[in-house]
Design goal:
With 120 residues, this protein is mainly β. The protein has one helix and seven strands. The strands form two sheets. It has a four-stranded antiparallel β-sheet. Strand 5 and strand 6 form a beta hairpin. The longest helix is centred in the middle third of the chain and has 7 residues. The chain is globular, with a radius of gyration of 16 Å. It starts with a strand and ends in an 11-residue tail after the last strand.
């Protein structure tokens, strides 16, 4: 299984004055994680500290380092039947440099993009 989540400045739901813009861009990855079944709905996968170097990574797109720990990925279908990913875990405090990790929760959907062609 491979998953990549990348933040960017085109987040429509973030207000212009939001603190979001003071944080660096970030890419979180799961790569080469072995799964036994192609059906993901209803499955959860835990990636503990010992697995961190093998299957999960983070890139801040600058000179700072950050590490993901205690990640858990859960897959479910939403009300319309679209696949959703719930990713929770901890990331080292790359913003203030504190020794306490920052807990995070992400929710992503895998909806098919609709391409609208404007005919002139």
């Amino acid at each position: 299984m491979e998953v990549e989540i990348i933040t960017d400045d085109s987040l429509d739901h973030v207000d212009d004055d939001s603190l979001q813009y003071n944080f660096p861009q970030i890419s979180m990855n799961v790569f080469d994680f072995p799964i036994e079944d192609s059906e993901l709905v209803g499955k959860s996968f835990a990636m503990r500290d010992s697995d961190a170097d093998n299957f999960i990574g983070v890139d801040l797109f600058d000179d700072e380092d950050a590490f993901l720990t205690e990640s858990k990925l859960s897959f479910k279908n939403d009300a319309t039947g679209e696949l959703e990913l719930f990713w929770e875990g901890n990331i080292t405090d790359f913003y203030t440099g504190s020794n306490q990790p920052i807990p995070f929760k992400l929710k992503c959907n895998f909806k098919q993009d609709e391409i609208i062609v404007d005919e002139d």
